[in-house]
Amino acid sequence: MKKFLQKYKFAILKLLIVIIVIASIAVGVYFLLKGLGYTTKEDFIALQERLGDSVFFWLAIGLLQVIQVIFIPVTNQIITVPCALVFPNSLWKVWITSWISIWLATLILYWIGRWGGKYLLKWILNDEEKSQRCSRWLKRGWFFYPLGMLLPLPDDIITTLAGVSKLPFWFVMLCSFITRGIDTACSVYGFGYLGRFWWGWIILVSGIILLFLVSFFLWKYDRKNANQPQEEVLEEKND
Predict the structure, then answer these.
(1) Would you give the distance in Å from CA 4 to the centre of its chain?
(2) Which of these, 119, 109, 118, 116, lies nearest to 145 by C-alpha position?
(3) Is 176:159 a contact under the CB 8 Å cutoff?
(4) Residue 21: inside a domain
(5) Does residue 108 form part of some domain?
(6) Does residue 218 lie in a domain region?
(7) DSSP output for 94-154
C-alpha cells in the first residue's frame, strides 16, 4: 500500500483536486438554484402559478433537470421527486419531462467525457500509455453500465466515464434512453404512487435484482470470451 501511494501520489493528488472542483461546482449550482427558488415543493407550486399548466412550465422543469444533471452529477431526485409529490394528478407529465430532459443531459455528459475526459485522464496520470490502459479498463465494464444507471449510484459520473472509455455512442444513447425511462418512472411513480403501497417497493426491488442478475451473466460471458484466446494459445504451445 505504501509503495502504491508513493508511486501514484501525484495522480491521487490531482484526482482529489478534480473531485474538490466538481464538488464545489455541484454545491455552488445547488445553492444557486435554491437561492433562485427552484428546489422545494413550494418553489414548484409558485412556478406553476406564474406559468400555469402550460408547455412553458414543463419546458422550464425540463431545463432545470438538464442543469441539475450536468452540474450536480450525483442524483436526479432534486427536481423529479418534489415535482412528483407536488403534482400527483400530472405524474405522466412529470415522468415524460424528466425522462427526456435527463436523457438529453446524459448524452451531453457522455460527449463531455469523450471530448475532454481523455485530456483530464492524461493530466491526472501524466502518462499517455497509462491513460489509454485506464480507458480500455473502463470500457471492459460496458455490461455494468445499465446496472449503474439504475442503482442509487452517481450515474451521471458513470456516463461521463463511459465517454472517457469511448463506449459506442449508439449503445450509450439506447441504453440510457431505456434506463432513464425506467429510473424516472421509479422516481415519479415510486414516490408518487407505488410508494403508497407495500407491494410497490417489491416491484421496484425485484426489477433491480433482475437487472443485476442479467449484468452478472453478461460479465461471466464477457470474461469467458476474454480468456478464450489465451486458452487457445496455451493449447497451441502445449501441442
Answers:
(1) 29
(2) 109
(3) yes
(4) no
(5) yes
(6) yes
(7) HHHHHHHHHHHHHHHHHHHHHHHHHHHHHHHH--HHHHHHHHHHHHTTGGGHHHHHHSSS-
pLDDT tens digit sequence for 163-182: 888 888 998 999 889 888 88
For the question of whether the overall pTM of this predicted structure is more than 0.85, the answer is no
How do residues 179-212 score in pLDDT, each as one tens digit?
888 888 877 877 656 555 666 667 667 767 776 7
Q: Is 84 within the bounds of a domain?
A: yes
Closest C-alpha among 238, 4, 13 to residue 123: 13
Quote the pLDDT of residue 122: 73
197: which residues sit within 8 A by CB, 6+ positions away?
A: none
Q: How many angstroms separate the CA atoms of 72 and 66, rounded? A: 10
108 grid coordinates: 451531453
CA distance linking residue 171 with residue 143, whole number of Å:
11
- Most confidently predicted of 18-32, 75-89, 128-142: 18-32
